[in-house]
Specification:
Blueprint (H helix, E strand, L loop, with lengths): L2 H18 L3 H6 L10 H6 L4 H11 L5 H7 L21 E4 L2 H10 L4 E7 L2 E8 L2 E7 L9 H5 L4 E4 L3 H10 L6 E5 L5 E6 L5 E5 L1
Parallel strand pairs: 1-4, 5-8
Antiparallel strand pairs: 2-3, 3-4, 6-7, 7-8
Helix pairs in contact: 1-4
């Protein structure tokens, strides 16, 4: 499939997502100057044409317009390349939270993560990362687990592998964090400590 064919499919997919009310489209619609001030709800309620979707796809590909993108695409299809080997590269835990903005602030300001993105006004989905670890944050109306269930079952929502876990534990200790579990030597030979976020999600840092 040529680059132009791929871009055409992506534009049609944007139109379909808009028609289905997918909030992830709203932020991309706001990249068009004429729609920059629309809220998510307004962007989804506003008429959205295939031409506008094509303009967005072209801009995301580094072109000023759809016409410029079409002109840059080769007239003939490129020779097909051998498919890359199958490889699952990563898994991303999704934490359920009642306030995405508050949770993102906790992970960035308290635990030293970077905020990768926040979707929505107010945010209903987001991502934070530190080094090679990434966590997604999803808004929910009510807690998934009943009161005391996390503590009673010892539930852990994400394991983050750390090189030099003692140094990270010292960093968090100096910052005055409260630990769900202090740094503990485990029978399997490694050490870990646990921290709870504002929604009670327990994150285990393992070394």
């Amino acid at each position: 499939m040529s680059m132009l064919d791929t871009c055409r499919k992506q534009a049609k997919l944007l139109v379909r997502w808009h028609r289905e009310g997918n909030y992830s489209v709203a932020g991309r619609i706001r990249t068009l100057q004429r729609h920059a001030l629309l809220t998510d709800q307004q962007a989804l309620a506003h008429p959205f044409t295939l031409a506008e979707a094509q303009e967005i796809i072209a801009r995301e590909a580094g072109y000023l317009s759809w016409a410029e993108l079409k002109g840059a695409c080769p007239a003939t299809r490129p020779e097909p390349h051998a498919a890359p080997p199958l490889h699952i590269s990563a898994a991303v835990p999704v934490l359920f939270v009642t306030d995405v903005a508050r949770s993102a602030a906790f992970y960035s300001e308290t635990l030293g993560f970077a905020v990768d993105f926040l979707h929505g006004h107010p945010p209903f989905y987001g991502s934070v990362s530190r080094d090679g670890a990434r966590l997604h944050l999803k808004w929910i109306y009510e807690p998934v687990f009943g009161p005391g269930r996390v503590e009673a079952e010892g539930l852990i929502m994400a394991f983050l592998t750390v090189e030099n876990v003692k140094a990270l534990y010292a960093e968090f200790t100096d910052a005055g964090l409260a630990f769900r579990q202090k740094l503990t030597k485990q029978p399997w030979g490694g050490s870990d400590f646990h921290i709870g976020d504002p929604d009670g999600n327990v994150i285990a840092f393992v070394g």
